[in-house]
Write a structure and sequence with these properties.
The chain is α+β, with helices and mostly antiparallel strands and 515 residues long. It has helices spanning 8-11, 14-47, 56-64, 67-72, 125-133, 161-167, 173-177, 208-217, 221-229, 237-249, 262-271, 284-298, 310-315, 377-381, and strands at 107-110, 116-118, 137-140, 146-148, 153-155, 186-187, 193-194, 200-201, 258-259, 317-329, 336-350, 353-356, 374-376, 385-392, 395-403, 407-413, 415-418, 421-424, 428-430, 436-437, 450-463, 469-479, 484-489, 492-496, 505-513. The protein is 28% helix and 28% strand. The strands form seven sheets. Strands 12, 16, 20, 21, 22, 23, 24 and 25 form an eight-stranded mixed sheet that branches. A five-stranded antiparallel sheet has the order 2-1-3-4-5. A four-stranded antiparallel sheet has the order 11-10-15-14, with no helix packed on it.
Length: 515
């Protein structure tokens, strides 16, 4: 059968040009591969070594060998294959690992299907994917350079700038200054509205404990601004991944109205030695404690010097502890407890203030069982008034705050373990979300010291159909630009009135000091 000759119109069409370019590239690749095969066979005969071409150096050499291809592609239209890019299939929240080799070195994303592949040399997985699947546009997830494969020339079209921004959002000081002042509403690719900073986070398995903490810290303005503006190149991976995640939470040009913490989760799981996992729920406060301390060290903080990192400058305060020994006197027929006349004073730093709930009544009637006990926040804060005493392991202690930080973190202690059984105190803590006066608990304070609530992490116990108790964590966040509150549980976002914030079981609270 004879081949039909192409008409003049077909010869000049973009589709025809693509076919011609692809055929020329394949012929060039075949001839070059034959030369490479002959050379490699000679090397094998000499030393018997066989390489798989997976090393970074091999990829770099192959990519340098593409200079001739780049020169031959100079006459190729700059927008060739760009119409095949499918933004709906792109998701850059996952860890940057090759989908074939699981390597994290020199990873590219296919902009047609969204899969990750290593390298772009002629023996790379990205190259084979371009030939096998007819997908041609790839972006380097580190350098953000875009290439067309198998021709291997760089695309410098501004039409792909939106994709580069989604991979690595960046902000100016002016952008950051407007985050809490201007009410911004953005739209995703489906034209669905979302509010930057108040977007859902995927609960991949059981990682809601991490979601609520990251959401809370992303609304601590100094920390958020620091993570969005600083260049963390060369810093530990933990800081870099948190920075990217916070910037994605506040991205005004996102392709979708939610983010996934997958990259951060994988790294947290690795460096915590599986203490915090994707597949197993953990205590949000345990994670917050570990997370802030590791961020402190990652930012160059010291284990001994106070306020030696940006983390401690935001959250660290000081509390004075007065301790008095309690001894027993059984000389008489009655056992007596005697307080030592000597009182020891120590000033210790803190990043969290632990608040103890009153114990739940042991015996309740039928009516009392349906009544949830309540306690005002000021009542449990009285622990730090300097006069309320606590009996702990033979000590009588009194606490008084000597220095308050810009941001206060309250840990309302709901969980206690006795005889390997975890007990939960469901007492509701009532509070006003604005103008919390901390002066009664500060040594030497003569004027009001006011704090406003920024984030409130809540706990709820639910039971599965099998009768197992399950913990559910949510976070309530304030939108300062609109003076509104939102409640976020993973991907679910809803408005909530400030008057009913306390109806949930508050577990962790972050308060901001008024300037």
């Amino acid at each position: 059968m004879s081949k039909r000759s192409a008409s003049p119109d077909e010869q000049g069409s973009p589709a025809r040009k693509r076919v011609q370019i692809r055929d020329e590239a394949e012929e060039r690749v075949i001839s070059e591969n034959l030369d490479v095969s002959d050379k490699s066979n000679g090397k094998k005969a000499e030393n018997g070594d066989v390489t798989d071409g997976s090393d970074q150096d091999d990829y770099e050499e192959e990519e340098e060998g593409h200079l001739a291809a780049d020169e031959s592609a100079a006459a190729v239209p700059a927008d060739l294959y760009l119409e095949t890019v499918d933004r709906m299939r792109l998701d850059f929240d996952f860890e940057k690992l090759c989908s074939v080799s699981l390597s994290n070195v020199n990873v590219y994303a296919c902009l047609v299907c969204g899969k990750y592949f290593q390298g772009r040399g002629r023996s790379s997985h990205a190259y084979f994917h371009s030939v096998d699947e007819d997908h041609h546009v790839f972006i380097n997830l580190q350098t953000l350079k875009v290439y067309v494969l198998p021709e291997s020339y760089e695309v410098k079209s501004s039409a792909l700038d939106d994709i580069k921004y989604v991979v690595n959002p960046h902000f100016t000081k002016k952008d950051v200054a407007h985050l809490d002042k201007m009410a911004i509403e953005s739209f995703d690719l489906n034209r669905k509205p979302y509010r930057p900073g108040f977007v859902g986070m995927n609960n991949i398995k059981q990682n809601d404990y991490l979601n609520v903490i990251v959401q809370s810290l992303a609304h601590v303005a100094p920390l958020r601004n620091f993570l969005m503006l600083e260049n963390f190149e060369g810093k530990p991976e933990l800081v870099q991944r948190l920075s990217v995640l916070v910037r994605k939470l506040w991205n005004t040009r996102a392709f979708k109205g939610h983010v996934s913490p997958h990259e951060l989760l994988q790294h947290v799981s690795a460096i915590s030695r599986k203490r915090f996992r994707i597949t197993e729920q953990a205590d949000p406060f345990d994670f917050l404690n570990w997370f802030l301390n590791n961020l402190h060290l990652s930012l160059g903080g010291s284990k001994t010097r106070l306020k030696s990192s940006f983390i401690q400058k935001i959250f660290q305060g000081k509390v004075r502890i007065e301790s008095q020994k309690i001894t027993t006197d059984d000389a008489s027929d009655r056992l007596r407890f005697v307080a030592d006349t000597q009182i020891q004073q120590n000033e210790v730093p803190f990043m969290f203030l632990a608040l103890d709930l009153p114990p739940a009544p042991l015996f309740q009637g039928d009516i009392d069982k349906n009544i949830i006990p309540q306690v005002p926040l000021q009542t449990i804060l009285s622990k730090y008034d300097g006069s309320t005493t606590q009996e702990l392991a033979g000590d009588r202690r009194r606490y008084k705050i000597s220095e308050l930080p810009p941001y206060l973190i309250f840990h309302i202690k709901r969980f206690t373990k006795t005889n390997l059984i975890e007990e939960i105190n469901h007492t509701v803590v009532t509070f006003q979300s604005i103008a919390l006066d901390m002066s009664p608990y500060v040594d030497g304070a003569t004027e009001p010291i006011l704090y406003d609530l920024v984030a409130n992490v809540t706990h709820e116990s639910v039971f599965t159909p099998q009768g197992e108790e399950k913990h559910v964590y949510r976070v309530q966040l304030k939108d300062k630009s609109r003076d509104e509150w939102f409640q976020i549980q993973d991907l679910y976002i809803e408005n909530i009135r400030r008057e009913i914030l306390f109806l949930n079981e508050s577990y962790i609270q972050i308060w901001e000091r008024r300037r």
